[in-house]
Write a structure and sequence with these properties.
Structural class: alpha+beta
Shape: flat
Distance between the termini: 87 Å
Strand order of the largest sheet: 14-8-15-16-17-18
Strand content: 5-15%
Number of strands: 18
Radius of gyration: 36 Å
Number of helices: 39
Length: 882
């Protein structure tokens, strides 16, 4: 056998000849190639524009980019694509030759596209929203070319993204690719939470975008790539892979077909607690038709002291007991005693959608089926255990002693579900001092029943050997996570209770004073809970008040309204007021506006006052306008009364600047003019408003410099013809500092220090200061610099005039003061184009306040992204909240 011969190397493929790059204006191929090389490394769109404009001027920069794209000279990455897209949006008819081929060169990953480790999420992997828009523009301009190219693209993100675009734009998609797209959409929908992105497509010859806002939206998109059965199967595959968040996210038919052990495994793998949604879990359990005993056994196998498993265990056991009742099998006492979390607060929370409704109904059915003495015995055993259950039992077996315990330990939301029949007890608990503590023995344990003076809640001291643990009645001393309160000797516990009685008595005196003054804001926690419950019950009914409701309203008087106002539930207050007769409603509202701690909360319901009574009602509000620190319904009341009646009501009342600002914000411009004309208020400029707030405040003030553009609302300018203060343009005749990339920085503004003498001492010998930034893109200001300029510089020849006004403001403006004149001064500053000295407002990062130079707002004619920017003495800038 002959020796093997060495394999001959295949001849190397010749590189395709590179097409010459035609010149553009005065730029030859070498210059264009060099420029394209720098653009490929420039991922900021504003920096790309700057380089293009530097090469050929502003008017020709986009034409230059199109030339480079058409000849394949520049890569499609974040900077170049963003600039090209902006021009295509601005001019939909602009021709971009070779655009489809440019799309074919997109990066394999979003990270390399953006040159960043962190990029925004998108529906398809590595198919950023900017990439999507570029592909959609290519499909719009060259449909046949795009379809032909998409069939040949092998790169994963490009292949999937292009066919997703084609599918939603109405083109046919190969079956195997459609299946991949369908599964990708399902994976996004099965996320935690479901992903709701924006995407682009072409419809009726126009570029269109759509946000996925719901499961129905996702399904509508998915049906471009398969039928309903295929979508359900894809969604189930994604969700059963552990990428789901809620029981209701999975089609019931999928879960219904699983064996019980597999079903339990899926529940335990859920990213959220499946017991949080009893409505969905009950529906799936009903669809499964498992043996009840088998479900109960599976539930008992869960960890009864672990948060998620404990709640799931409870819901499963409750379901088995209710379904047993449906089949005529009453629950036994032993089965009910297995329940660990009867009546958790969220079960009785009034929310929409009310997913807890089936669980409440199940508890009601279970306890209604128990003999009264058995249910009350279970309640007695739960005393001090922190396992709740009192309201759940009371709904079926109302008992005075049990109700008193529930009032002391349950939250308001739970008490509301008991309805009007408990109102007499709630009202007395609100108005009366709770009884002294008692010490008693129950089932071998020492239990101290009383009220904690610090919180107003019932407390328990449970004997444990030689010591006693003090608990607040909501948490158990025998919980697996340890002792929840100090353990002390029983004798010490009794002494502690006696010593606390004096504090308790003082607390009750404060409560009585609060009730008498209708001052819901100074209620202690327990009183607030009771008031919230009473108000919630009154609001939950309909039609005229029944006997218990009538008695509660008569017993409490106008305080019943303030109870609701203090808790900030305007919808409940509205429902309650509508249940009253016209005369009673007017009396209650008028009394509240006169004496309530927050009268503006009552004023919010001015629309429910008879029109004839609104002037007196409004006048009472304005006589107490000093209480209005935050709106809290004041604007709603003003709009309900209207400008003419507000003018009549405020006749003879001097209105401060803060109140006038509130009126201006509440009314439309036309309505505010009507109000001012009716009151015959003299026109005031914003400069006069600054002077007014300083007078109204009466405290320390300080001067600063307000910056304004030509749009200065008619205020005469102090600017002279020789001023150097300008925004934009080329600035003074000096050499601009260089940015990190070696390019000259952009001029932002110049301040003539002759107009800001208090600032001049920071820059000795300077006539002006100029602020430069690497780019006027919103994210480029942190690299900005201040340059001091001497008197020998050439004055600015372009830019927009900047007007500098010296004004005084209350010093508390920058130290967190909340007085109305201080708030009014802040609003005045936010309405200007910027200011120097003083201090910053709305800082989003830690800054050196001593180094503060100025704050600028978008009104100055620049884009700061968040609406405002803080500038330090060095020129470094930080964004702020507008």
């Amino acid at each position: 056998m002959s020796a093997p011969q060495p394999r001959k190397k295949a001849p190397a493929k010749k590189a395709a000849a590179k097409s010459p790059l035609p010149p553009f204006d005065d730029l030859d191929e070498a210059a264009l190639t060099a420029l394209a090389g720098t653009l490929d490394k420039t991922f900021d769109e504003f920096a790309v524009e700057k380089k293009l404009a530097k090469a050929v001027g502003d008017a020709r920069q986009y034409s230059l980019l199109v030339h480079l794209i058409a000849h394949g000279a520049v890569a499609p990455q974040a900077g170049t694509v963003s600039v090209a897209l902006r021009q295509m949006r601005h001019d939909p008819d602009v021709a971009v030759p070779n655009l489809v081929a440019w799309v074919g060169k997109l990066s394999k990953t979003s990270k390399s596209f953006w040159n960043s480790k962190s990029v925004s999420s998108s529906l398809l992997p590595d198919w950023d929203i900017t990439m999507q828009e570029l592909a959609a523009q290519a499909l719009l301009r060259d449909p046949s070319g795009f379809v032909a190219a998409a069939a040949k693209w092998k790169q994963a993100n490009l292949r999937l993204g292009a066919h997703f675009l084609l599918g939603v734009s109405g083109h046919a998609v190969p079956a195997e690719i459609a299946a991949d797209v369908l599964q990708t959409i399902a994976a996004a929908e099965a996320g935690t939470p479901p992903f709701r992105p924006q995407f682009f497509f072409v419809k009726n010859g126009a570029l269109t975008s759509w946000n996925l806002n719901s499961r129905d939206d996702a399904r509508a998109v998915a049906l471009h790539f398969g039928d309903a059965a295929a979508w359900d199967a894809a969604l189930a595959t994604a969700m059963l892979g552990g990428k789901w968040s809620r029981v209701r996210d999975v089609p019931a038919a999928v879960l219904a077909g699983l064996p019980l052990d597999a079903f339990m495994a899926i529940l335990l793998a859920e990213n959220r607690n499946p017991g949080d949604d009893p409505e969905a879990l009950f529906a799936v359990l009903d669809a499964r038709r498992d043996d009840l005993a088998a479900v109960a056994d599976a539930a008992r196998g869960l960890a009864s002291e672990t948060g998620a498993q404990r709640l799931l265990r409870e819901v499963l056991l409750v379901w088995t007991l209710q379904r047993g009742l449906d089949r005529g099998v009453a629950p036994t006492e032993a089965q009910v005693r297995e329940l660990r979390d009867i009546g958790q607060p969220q079960v009785y929370a009034a929310s929409e959608p009310d997913v807890q409704r089936p669980l409440r109904a199940a508890y009601d059915a279970i306890f209604s089926a128990l003999p009264r003495e058995v249910a009350l015995a279970i309640a007695a055993d739960r005393q001090g255990s922190g396992k709740h259950g009192l309201v759940a039992i009371l709904r079926s077996h109302l008992d005075p002693t049990l109700l008193q315990r529930a009032i002391a330990s349950e939250g308001a939301t739970s008490l509301i579900t008991l309805g009007p029949r408990v109102l007499p007890a709630l009202v007395e608990a609100l108005l009366q001092t709770p009884p002294m503590w008692q010490v008693q023995r129950a089932r071998g344990r020492v239990i101290v029943i009383g009220t904690d003076p610090a919180s107003g809640r019932e407390i328990f001291a449970v004997d444990s050997g030689q010591q006693v643990a003090i608990s607040d009645g909501l948490r158990s001393v025998d919980t697996p996570w340890g002792t929840v309160a100090d353990a002390i000797a029983l004798a010490q516990a009794e002494a502690w209770l006696a010593a606390a009685h004096a504090q308790h008595a003082a607390k009750m005196q404060q409560r009585a004073a609060s009730v008498a003054a209708l001052d819901g804001q100074s209620f202690d926690t327990a009183t607030g809970e009771l008031g919230h419950a009473i108000h919630g019950i009154l609001a939950a009914g309909s039609g005229p008040l029944d006997a218990d409701e009538r008695a509660a309203v008569d017993r409490l008087g106008p305080v019943v309204l303030q109870l609701g106002l203090a808790w900030g539930h305007p919808e409940r207050t509205d429902k309650f007021l509508r249940r009253l007769g016209d005369d009673e409603r007017q009396r209650v509202l008028q009394r509240a506006i006169e004496v309530a701690a927050k009268p503006q909360r009552a004023f919010a319901f001015a629309a429910l006052m008879p029109r004839a009574g609104r002037v007196a009602f409004t006048r009472a509000m304005f006589q107490r306008s000093a209480t209005v620190v935050h709106d809290e319904g004041f604007a709603a009341g003003l709009r309900a009364v209207g400008p003419e009646q507000v003018a009549e009501a405020t006749a003879g009342i001097e209105l401060d600047t803060a109140t006038l600002q509130r009126l201006q914000r509440a009314f439309t411009p036309q309505q505010f003019e009507q109000f001012k004309n009716a009151r015959r208020l003299a026109p005031r400029t914003w400069l006069e408003d600054f002077a007014a707030v300083v007078r109204e405040h009466g405290g320390p003030s300080e001067s600063l410099y307000v910056l304004e553009t030509d749009d200065r609302a008619g205020v005469p300018s102090p600017r002279t013809a020789s001023s150097w203060s300008v925004v934009g343009g080329r600035g003074l005749g000096i050499e601009a500092p260089l940015a990190a990339d070696g390019d000259p920085m952009d001029h932002v503004l110049t301040l003539d220090l002759r107009e800001l003498p208090s600032l001049a001492s920071r820059y000795p010998g300077a006539r002006a200061i100029s602020w430069f930034t690497p780019s006027t893109a919103p994210d480029q200001y942190e690299g900005a610099r201040i340059v001091a300029v001497g008197d020998d510089a050439t004055p600015p020849v372009d830019g927009r005039p900047l007007h500098v006004f010296t004004v005084a403001v209350p010093s508390a403006v920058f130290t967190g003061g909340e007085a109305p004149p201080v708030q009014a001064a802040r609003r005045l500053l936010w309405q200007r184009a910027g200011w120097c000295l003083g201090g910053p407002l709305g800082v989003q990062a830690e800054v050196d306040l001593d180094d503060f130079l100025m704050q600028l707002l978008d009104r100055i004619g620049l884009s700061f992204g968040d609406g405002a920017i803080y500038v330090a003495g060095s020129g470094r800038a930080l964004f702020q909240a507008g």
